Amino acid sequence: MKKNLLSIAVAASVAGTSAHAAMYVNPEGTGQVLLFPYYNAENGNETSIHIVNTTNDAKAVKVRIMEYANSQEVLDFNLYMSAEDHFSFTIFEDPNGTGGALITRDNSCTVPALGDPNAGVPGSTTTANGKTTRIQPFLNYQYATDAYSSIYRTKIGHVEVMEMGTLTAGAAWAVDATHGADGVPADCADLVEAWSTGGTFLTSPYFGLGPVSGGLYGVSSHLNNADSAAWGIEASAIADFWDPAENNGIGDHTRPGSLLPNLASGDSQAIVPDAGVATTYTYDVGEEEDSVSALFMTTSISNDVMINPNLSGMTDWVITFPTRRYYVNQTPARKPFTDPYAGATGPNSSCETIVIEQWDREEAFIPPTTQGPQFSPEPPPEAADDPSSICYETNTIAAGSTTSALNATMSTTTTAAAAVSLSFSYVEGWQRITFSDADHELDAEVGPTLQGLPAIGFAAFKYSNSSSNYGFSSDHKSSVATS
Fold it and tell me: How far apart are the first and last CA of the chain?
């Protein structure tokens, strides 16, 4: 979900009161950070991720794949893109295991080289046309001590992409990453060696790097192979993520496998639009994740629901909280989230109360009640009067159905899968989910308090005729409120 409300000119003018420009969600779709809200690799599903460098700068980029329950990393690697490079991969079900995996035939340089046995159990083959097919399984190392440590968690989640710096034009690293006439980079092995024992980057990670320049965009497509339906989903792009006054304008060029840089590594200022007025917020040093949260804070999300049986209609809502882990992986949880994640007790141990309202196309309305519409499976009898809640970092909600349009596995009373069902009383209409807990608020050092939770996502619709299945998606609509 992108907030298409702010032009670069407005961002620059508002940020003019600061010593430097603040981060913002770029409506033009390019930036230094990309947030892909969803991938799904279960039940034969595939999600293709495309990362494009629109600039004339070669770049060092961190690619991080996060599982759905608590955004624990299941794979990361460094990507070294040449100028105007396009890198793509597909997340699918590991053919040799029970989790997710990445497959690619792209030649762009990665460290480690995908399919490298030092980065997990690999698989790679060379086809007749000389292309190398590389398969890299996802790993559950980061959450292995959780009570819910199943490799299944790697099958659904979201993806982060972060520029770490540019490769100095004409210098060795930029030459290494540049594709020749055969479409193959000059020397990816040299970049791997730079991060290997005795390598240059281990002692001098910024050697040959220059300031970040942005210009990345991301597009993904999700394919439900069971029904031959597909959805196109764009990444949210954060521009000016890095503080140009820090580290000579270079980001944070870290080794592969490092949990840095992350969404807490950027600027302490963020530009947030509200009803055509843009405000610059400043957050505490050491809590820079608040800046990213501010960009996506919303009191509610609204979107269509279409489940008309005459069209075999189905609707899933995907709601991802891209920064939640920074607030719930501690006790007590820090605002705007309220419930600490307790990995020792299982996957549903960090839940936020929500209010659900539903309308049909002719304004028939189901008002919120104490209980409200309940997700399936329903809570035990002693908790029947509890309000609805949402419990994961990446949530898949099947509206009006016990089957997911995106072909995600539905949770049961005994199985903690990624998708849940939500009743919807009409065949077509719309729905609003509101984050209205008193503690759903983000305090700023400079600027008003933002209400709600930081959320991105979309609605995925599927319908069928006698011969074909169709899929389309719509970004969620958000609302900004302050106090």
Answer: 23
Q: How many domains does the chain contain in total? A: 2
Regarding whether 331 and 207 lie in a shared domain, the answer is no
Tell me if the bond preceding 336 is cis, omega within 30° of 0: yes
Expressed as residue numbers, the domain containing 355 is 297-478
Residue 312 placed within a domain: yes
Same domain, 265 and 375: no
The residue that leads in pLDDT, 32 or 467, is: 32
- Please give the average per-residue pLDDT across 298-327, as a whole number: 97
Has residue 2 been placed in a domain? no
Decide which of 260, 276, 291 is a domain's last residue: 291
Confidence of residue 266 (pLDDT cuts 50, 70, 90): very high
What is the rounded CA–CA span in Å between residue 101 and residue 119?
A: 12
Closest Cα partner for 361 from 423, 433, 425, 457? 425
Q: Are 447 and 454 in contact (CB under 8 A)?
A: no
One domain, residues 340 and 256: no
Out of 263, 291, 319, pick the residue that ends a domain.
291
CB distance 159 to 59 below 8 Å? no
Same domain, 37 and 134: yes
Rounded alpha-carbon distances, angstroms, from residue 147 to 329, 349, 394, 409? 15, 11, 19, 20
Distance in angstroms (rounded) separating the CA atoms of residues 463 and 119: 40
**Average pLDDT across the chain, whole number:** 89
Q: What is the pLDDT of residue 97?
A: 82
Q: Within a domain: residue 49? A: yes
DSSP β-bridge partners for residue 90 = 48, 103
pLDDT grade, residue 57 (50/70/90)? Answer: very high
Supply the pLDDT for residue 184: 92
Distance in angstroms (rounded) separating the CA atoms of residues 42 and 406: 10
pTM, to two decimals: 0.92
Contacts of 469 (CB under 8 A, 6+ apart): 224, 227, 228, 229, 462, 463
Q: Token match 């997990």: residue?
A: 120
145 CB-near residues (< 8 Å, 6+ apart):
343
Contact status, residue 428 vs residue 310, Cβ threshold 8 Å? no
Phi, psi of 62 (to 5 degrees): -95, 130
3-state secondary structure string across 300-325: EEEEEEECCHHHCCEEEEEEECCCCH
Task: Tell me the sheet residues that pair with 176.
Answer: none
Cis bond before residue 185 (omega within 30° of 0): no
Q: What is the pLDDT of residues 409-430, one digit of tens each?
A: 998 777 788 899 999 989 999 9
